[in-house]
Amino acid sequence: MADMTSTTPETQQEKVQREKVHKSDAEWRELLTPEQFHIMRQKGTEPAFSGPLNNNHEDGIYRCAACNAELFTSDKKFDSGSGWPSFWLPVSADAIEAHEDNAHGMRRIEVTCATCGAHLGHVFPDGPRPTGLRYCMNSASLAFEKQ
């Protein structure tokens, strides 16, 4: 099984240099839609197959919908059949952070934006090669920039 939470010393150093975005709930509510706030700040989940980016097949960059940080690229996206946009690798090791999530009686690994801490989705060890990982993201947590 792939290790979903390990980091290299270089990655830890890069994370130290990344400038974090901190805002109050009131500030986030001004910037995000109610759905985005619920998902990104309260760790919600959109219904499967409801997000507009699930079936997006355009070339481009997927960014954090809260802070605009680059998270994933279209060449690492795949159709997992799960109903959420799925990727097998983030844009860089320091773009996201992984956290143990034992909510709802399940044991999962939550994925958050390393820049602003927004909840993006979860990562599972059932993805395609070469990583074997499936980063299952909420469409509402992502902004797509077509290239």
In words, what does this structure look like?
The termini are far apart. The chain has a single domain, classed as Peptide methionine sulfoxide reductase (Metal Binding Protein, Guanine Nucleotide Exchange Factor, Chain A, Beta Complex). The chain is of the alpha+beta class and 147 residues long. The protein contains three helices and nine strands. Helix content is 17%, strand content 27%. It holds the Pfam family SelR. GO terms for molecular function: peptide-methionine (R)-S-oxide reductase activity; zinc ion binding.
Task: Describe what is shown at a glance.
With 147 residues, the chain is α+β, with helices and mostly antiparallel strands. The protein has one domain: Metal Binding Protein, Guanine Nucleotide Exchange Factor, Chain A (Beta Complex), CATH 2.170.150.
Mean pLDDT level: 91
Instruction: Give a count of the beta strands, DSSP E runs of length 2 or more.
Output: 9
**Strand order across the largest sheet:** 3-4-8-7-6-5
Number of domains: 1
Radius of gyration: 14 Å
Strand percent estimate: 25-35%
- Quaternary state reads single chain
Keywords for this structure?
alpha+beta; Metal Binding Protein, Guanine Nucleotide Exchange Factor, Chain A; six-stranded antiparallel β-sheet; three-stranded antiparallel β-sheet; zinc; EC 1.8.4.12; Met_Sox_Rdtase_MsrB; peptide-methionine (R)-S-oxide reductase activity; Met_Sox_Rdtase_MsrB_dom
